[in-house]
Design a protein that fits this description.
Layout lengths: L2 H8 L16 H4 L31 E6 L3 H12 L3 H9 L11 H7 L4 E4 L4 H7 L3 H12 L9 E3 L11 H8 L3 E3 L4 H6 L7 E8 L4 H12 L4 E8 L1
Parallel strand pairs: 1-6, 2-5, 5-6
Antiparallel strand pairs: 3-4
Bound molecules: zinc ion (2 copies).
The site of one zinc ion has 7 residues, from helix 2.
């Protein structure tokens, strides 16, 4: 019996949809995971393969979004956010990732081949202390492991607390986000000496895309620090 078997035995997996034991999402409830349509990370309108439109300016080259933030997906993500069950997230973010048989992930797959570094959207240290973990980091780590990529959760830090962005105007969101993030406090020149260079490509990871203001600001900061290409990845929108 290994440790995960023991954990399963003490805390048996239970479906978040119907309560049936055996897995976090049973096969009956799995059909309730709707695949989300891909959008342009700048204007939010539909875009094939999640590519940023040619006529839209922005720091995110593209955005990949797996599911619609409704029903069982919403339940699952909310549960992991406010409970300590991050095992849910681990399982949730790695199962069902069949990028290869899905043409809407064509450009994302191409991006994965450039060996990008996986970077989670950071929480403010105060929030991290309250919650005990960063759900974006858990998704980022399981994603990186699954695709044999490096994960760096220290490249970005959140230095300003921000309130929820829903219901604010575009201008309010922009000013609230300004100065919220920074790249590693160590000067980049120091990194160069140690041959730990700024990665040229980054996959920026979060659990949910709401207005996109957070991810767009993170991407801007990464680009300013010398990252050439940033692609966003979220579980749901
Ligand atoms: Zn179920
Ligand atoms: Zn656009």
């Amino acid at each position: 019996m290994n440790i995960s078997d023991i954990l399963d035995w003490i805390f048996p997996k239970k479906c978040v949809g119907c309560g049936k034991y055996g897995s976090y999402v049973c096969s009956d409830c799995e059909v309730g995971l709707w695949e989300e349509e891909q959008i342009c990370p700048t204007c939010g309108r539909n875009s094939r393969n999640g590519l940023r439109h040619k006529y839209c300016k922005g720091d995110l080259e593209g955005l990949t979004c797996l599911w619609t933030y409704e029903g069982i997906t919403r339940k699952l993500i909310t549960k992991t956010k406010y409970n300590f069950y991050f095992d849910y997230l681990r399982e949730f973010s790695i199962f069902n990732f069949q990028f290869s048989n899905n043409s809407q992930f064509f450009n994302f797959q191409k991006f994965l081949k450039t060996k990008p570094v996986v970077v989670p959207v950071p929480l403010h240290p105060k929030r991290l202390r309250e919650r005990g973990f960063n759900q974006a980091e858990i998704i980022a780590k399981s994603f990186a492991a699954r695709h044999s990529l490096a994960c760096n959760s220290h490249l970005l830090s959140r230095i300003k607390e921000t309130k929820p962005q829903v219901g604010r105007t575009r201008e309010e969101r922009l000013s609230a986000m300004s100065g919220a993030f920074t790249t590693s406090p160590l000067p980049l020149s120091l990194f160069k000496e140690r041959e730990i260079r700024t990665p040229s490509a980054v996959i920026l990871v979060d659990d949910v895309w709401t207005t996109g203001a957070t991810m767009r600001e993170c991407a801007r900061v990464l680009k300013k620090a010398g990252v050439k290409q940033v692609w966003g990845f979220v579980l749901a929108r």
